[in-house]
Amino acid sequence: PQRPEEAKAFVNAFLKRSMPKKKDEAIQDILTRKAVVLEHYSKKKTKQKRKKPKGFTAKQRREMRLFEIEPEQQRYTIFLPLHELWKQYIRDLCHGLKPDAQPHMIQGKLLKADLHGAIVTVTKSKCPSFVGITGIILQEFKHVFKIITKEDKLKVVPKLNNVFSLEIDGFISYIYGSKFQLRASERSAKKFKLKGTIDL
């Protein structure tokens, strides 16, 4: 058995190791109490920074030709199933496109919808050669639409200075390209004014 002096020395040493931030006077004060609450100091874990995966640069995407459609794939009939899928997507988005639906509600939904697969027609343009182009939108970029026509020709039509019409189940919507120069992913957060302007 330990003598009282040895026991006291052991307790003092134990408390000093357990509570390194306490001074000797504070430890002696703690010893006068009936209960001793030991403090626990956890070691701070260093957080490892997660490396974000780097995507391709615009130059690399161009060099890899990621967005180019091969000539043998540039056929209108190949993309008709895409158009059917798009129509079903719009019907679901607009809750069925019922005859009593409010036009401005459908217009607002269409402006924010994904247009890949939609059939559009250029109705007005400052460049007469664009007027009348009709086809399925294959790709939408910030400033242009890539459209495949029934003649299996891939047309790159700028949004600027062009007005596009879009028809589905009897509803016709007009898109003013000059006010529509956004990426498809950015449109969902954009607030559009439904009262458009006739200016190109």
* Main CATH class of the largest domain: Mainly Beta
Average predicted confidence as pLDDT: 81
Percent helix, as a range, is 25-40%
Number of strands: 6
Domain tally? 2
Record the SSE blueprint.
Elements: H1 4-18, H2 24-31, H3 58-64, H4 80-93, H5 103-112, E1 119-125, E2 134-140, E3 144-149, E4 154-158, E5 162-168, E6 171-176
Antiparallel strand pairs: 1-2, 1-5, 2-3, 3-4, 5-6
Summarize the structure.
By secondary structure, the protein is an alpha+beta fold. It has helices spanning 4-18, 24-31, 58-64, 80-93, 103-112; strands at residues 119-125, 134-140, 144-149, 154-158, 162-168, 171-176. It folds into two domains: 7-33; 74-189, Roll (SH3 type barrels).
Structure characterization notes:
This protein has 200 residues and is α+β, with helices and mostly antiparallel strands. The protein has two domains: 7-33; 74-189, Ribonuclease P/MRP, subunit p29 (SH3 type barrels, Roll), CATH 2.30.30. The protein has five helices and six strands. Strands 4-3-2-1-5-6 form a six-stranded antiparallel beta sheet. A hairpin with a 2-residue loop joins strand 5 and strand 6 (171-176). The longest helix is centred in the N-terminal third of the chain and has 15 residues, at 4-18.
